[in-house]
Amino acid sequence: MAEYKLAVIPGDGVGPEVVAEGRKVLDALAADTPGLSFRYTEFPWGSDYYRETGALMPEDGLELLSPSDAILFGAVGDPDIPDHVTLHGLLLPMRRGFDQGVCIRPAYLYPGVTSPLTGKRAGDIDMVIFRENTEGEYAPVGGRLYPGTPHETVIQSNVFTRRGTERIIRAAFENCVRRNKKNKVTSVTKSNAQAFGMVFWDEVFQDVAAEYPQVETESLLVDRACMDFVRWPESFDVVVASNLFGDILSDIAAVVTGSMGLAPSANINPERQHPSMFEPVHGAAFDIVGRGIANPLATISAVAMMLDHLGEPEAALRVDAAVALCLQEGQVLTPDLGGEATTVQVGDLVVHMLSHG
Ligand code: GGG
């Protein structure tokens, strides 16, 4: 047990609403766990900060975050600012600057939650997506020549390094062995079309897979993987994908397990030289901002992933169990899950379930 220094960036849109519930859960844990405490430093970065200063975060932002044990992040995005400005101004600099190359996105169909897919029962869908998080299709490499002329030329390059590719694929295999469920790792590729980056990805996958002969493997083209996430989601266990493919597939996984509002995400620096970051998969959700109905459970599950990463597995399990109980009881749910409850009411119920579940 210890005191943990947490950097908190509520960000844009519904970010502040859901992060407040994540903090409420952390405070409740600290209140009834001797020796466990959290010291928060909140950073007001995001789109309002951009309107005031011309940047989403200050130039020394990473230095300010650096002493933290972990970062709790809400969302980024604004209807008046182009999405590439907000994403490249705040979220991606943290992922790259802190070398958070391993993004972990679990998707589980909880008891009490209805999948939009017919016939799926609780536990049928139980997978975890390992998304490469610092390079691939998100690398800021490219340029634009002769804009606005008939010769306009745009180049956007994908970047695959051996270190980054090997790291995410090895993390997926290690997790598969630890998790000990279906004992299968699926690699998502597009090597039929992308004959450099994705052929390299396939080669590295085969090399790393050879170190884990006890694990079943498969390699799916991304289009086939999208189909199978919808028609046979129960066939997946651990899925490893590039930055863009992992992002798209984790949204499909979230939706087939009931709601984007349930999907957590951990952005891990495996070497632990820098703080890791924990966030809901969903974004700013402008359509419901300020109505108090955003589902806080994705953020609260991200808090559980953060506790596990910090070395507090019992606290993490308590939070996971409280989330599962709220969903199973099914009385206090936000509208994305068919309920009428508010963000705050769901957060309060998680806190209640921590000690009364
Ligand atoms: N809570 C995460 C968030 O705000 N996501 C916005 C977004 O556009 N994310 C894209 C990504 O994760 O790559």
Explain the overall architecture.
Strand 6 and strand 7 form a beta hairpin. The chain has two domains: 1-105 and 262-357, Isopropylmalate Dehydrogenase (3-Layer(aba) Sandwich); 126-256, 3-Layer(aba) Sandwich (Isopropylmalate Dehydrogenase), CATH 3.40.718. It has eleven helices and twelve strands. It is α/β, with parallel strands linked by helices. It has helices at residues 15-32, 47-53, 61-65, 83-97, 162-179, 197-209, 222-231, 243-256, 297-310, 313-329, 343-356, and strands at 3-11, 37-42, 70-75, 102-108, 126-132, 142-145, 153-156, 184-189, 216-221, 238-241, 264-268, 276-280. The strands form two sheets. A ten-stranded mixed beta sheet has the order 2-1-3-12-11-4-5-10-8-9, sandwiched between helices. The site of glycylglycylglycine has 9 residues, from strand 12.
Kindly state the mean pLDDT as a whole number? Answer: 97
Summarize the biggest pleated sheet.
Answer: 10 strands, mixed
Low-pLDDT ranges: none
| CATH topology-level fold name of the largest domain | Isopropylmalate Dehydrogenase
| Known CATH architecture of the largest domain | 3-Layer(aba) Sandwich
Q: How large is the share of residues in beta strands?
A: 15-25%
The ordered H/E elements are: EHEHHEHEEEEHEHEHEHEEHHH
Short description:
By secondary structure, the chain is α/β, with parallel strands linked by helices. It has helices spanning 15-32, 47-53, 61-65, 83-97, 162-179, 197-209, 222-231, 243-256, 297-310, 313-329, 343-356; strands at residues 3-11, 37-42, 70-75, 102-108, 126-132, 142-145, 153-156, 184-189, 216-221, 238-241, 264-268, 276-280.
